[in-house]
Amino acid sequence: MRTIKWKLVAMYLGLVFLVMIVSGSFILLRYQNNEMEKARDQLEVYAQMVSEQVVLNYDESSFQSGLIQFARSGSTTGQIQGSILDRTGATLATTVTSRPPYPQYKNSVVIGAMAGTATFSRRQITDDSGTPFLAYGYPVTINEETAYVVYAQMDASSIFDSIAQTRSTIFVSVGIALLITAVMGYVFAKNLTNPIVALTGRAKELARGKLNQSVRVYSHDEIGQLSESFNYMARELSRTVSDITKEKSKLEVILHNMTDGVLSFDLDGQVLQCNSASLAMLGIEKADFTFKEFLEKFGLGIGLYVELLEHPQTRKEDFWVGEKYLTAAFSPYAGEGGLDGVVVVLQDNTEQKKLDDMRKEFVANVSHELRTPLTTVKSYAETLLDGAMEDPEIARDFLGIINNEADRMSFLVRDLLQLSRFDNKQIVLQKREVSLNEFLEETVRQNKIHASNKQQTLLFRSYPGDVVIQADPDRLGQVVNNVLTNAFKYSGEGASITVWLEEEDGYGKIFVKDTGMGIAKEDLDRIFERFYRVDKARSRAMGGTGLGLAIVKEIMEAHQGKITVESQLGVGTTMVLWFPIDGKKKV
Length: 587
Ligand code: ADP
What we know:
The protein has helices spanning 4-55, 63-73, 108-114, 157-207, 222-257, 276-282, 291-297, 303-310, 350-385, 392-423, 436-453, 473-489, 521-524, 536-541, 548-558, and strands spanning 80-86, 91-94, 119-120, 125-126, 132-142, 145-155, 261-266, 271-274, 315-321, 324-335, 338-348, 432-435, 457-461, 468-471, 496-504, 507-514, 562-568, 572-580. By secondary structure, the chain is of the alpha+beta class.
C-alpha cells in the first residue's frame, strides 16, 4: 500500500466517493424537498378549500355531512383525508371514518395550527396501521381567533418509497462509480507508475554497476522527460566510468610495469595498491601486512609511523632485504579531510650501493697502497738527511730502496691509469690477425730468462695447424706476460710452467699452467677484483700491485673474450684466456 500506484487508487476512490456522496445527497435533498413542497401545496389547497367551503358555510353540527359532501364533490384528489377539529383538538368531522368515534390528533401540526399558524409536518407521521402520512394543519380564524383547525393528511408511502428508491439508486451508483474508479484508477495509476517502476529498476541496476541501462520513452510528458534524462545520465555515466576505467587500467599497467616498487596504504594501514616490482623487491608473494607490520617486518622502526603522522612530509629510508639494498620513499598523501594514507616507493639501489662501496674501498685501497711506499721513501730520505748521506755505501743502499719504492708507486699509478682508461672507455684496440702459435712461441722465448731465474721450466706446446685470432698484439702480449709473471711469482723454484693452445667453440684458448702454490677455492672468484691478493705480504714482496689480473680481465673483455681459472691449493693453477676467433662476442 506504500506504492504510488495504490496511493493514487486510494486518492481517486476518495475523490470519487466524496463527489458522489455530495452530489447524491444534494440531488436526494432537492428531490425530497420538491416532493414535500408538492405535497404541502396539495394539502394547503385542500385545507383552504375545506375552510372556505365547509367550515365557513356550515354549522358546527353539520360539519361532518358538509365534509363528506365536499369529499364527494371531487374538487381535490382522493388521496387527501381531512378532519375538522375544534380549538381543543377534538374531531368535529372527518373523512377518515363516517361515524364516531373520530380519531384524535395531538401532533405538532395540530398544536401549531391551534396556535394560529398553518403548519406542515415534513416528517412522516404514522398512524395505527403504520402507514406514513404527511399532515397539514390550517387554522380557521373567526373574529381574529382560531376557532377551528382543518387537519389534512395524505398517504406519503409512495413519496417516501420513491425517496428511498432514489437514495438506494444513488448508493448503487456510488458503489458502481467506486468500482469503475478502482479499476480505471488502477489501470491509470499503473500506466503512470510503470515507467517510474522501470526507472527505479534500471537505476538500481545502474547502482549495481550494470552501466548499459536505458528505458523506453513512451511519452513526452514529465515522466517521458525524466526517462530521457535518465537515459542521458546513464550514457554519460557509462562513458565517464569507462574513461575512468581506462585511465585506471592504464595506471595499473604503468604501475605493474614500473621498475620501482609502489605500495600504498590507507589511514588504517591497510594495503591499497601493491605492484609486482615491490613484491619482487621485498621477496614476498603477497602484501598481507598493515603499514605498521610492514615497518616492523623490514626493520624500519615504528617511530617512522608516528613521525609521518605528526609531520606529513616525504621521508627516505634505506634498508636491506636479504642481498638487496632498498631505498623507500614514504610520501603521506592528503584528501579533503586531512591525511588519507601513505605511498611507499621502493627503489633497488643494490648496484648503486655496491658501486659506492667499491668506490670507497678503492679510494681506501689506493691510499693504503701509496702510503706504504711513501712512508718508506720519507723515512729513508730523512735518515739520509740526518747524516747517512755521509756514508756513500749506506747512501747508495738507501737510494736504491727509495728508487724501488718510487718504481712501485709508478707501477701502481701506471696500472691505475690503465684501469681508469678502461673504465672511461678510452682504450682503443688496434686489432689485427694474430697467429697464436707464432706469437706465443716468441713470448715464451722472451720469458725463458725469468723462469730460469727461479730454476723453473717454461714450455710451449705449439698447436697443430695454428689458431689465428683478431687481437691487439700489444694488449695480447700484456695479458700473456701478466699471467706468465704470476705463474713465475706464485710458483716455487723448480716448478714447471706450460703454455699451450686450443681451439674450441669459436674461441682460441691460451692455457698457462703452473705447478705452483695454487689458489684456495674461496679466493678463486675474487682474484680478478682490483687490489685483491690472496697473500698481501707475499704479493707486495714480489712487487705486485694487486691490479694485474683486474687489468687482464678488462683487456679480455675489450676483446669480447674472458679469463677463467682452475686451481688446486698446493698443486697448481691453470689460467685460460679465451679469445673469440672472429673477434666477436659469443653467446
Ligand atoms: P698481484 O699484483 O698481487 O700479482 P694480480 O691481480 O696479478 O695481483 O693477482 C691477484 C692475486 O691472485 C695474487 O695476489 C695472487 O694471490 C693470486 N694469483 C694470481 N696468479 C696466481 C697463480 N698463478 N698462482 C697462485 N696465485 C695466483
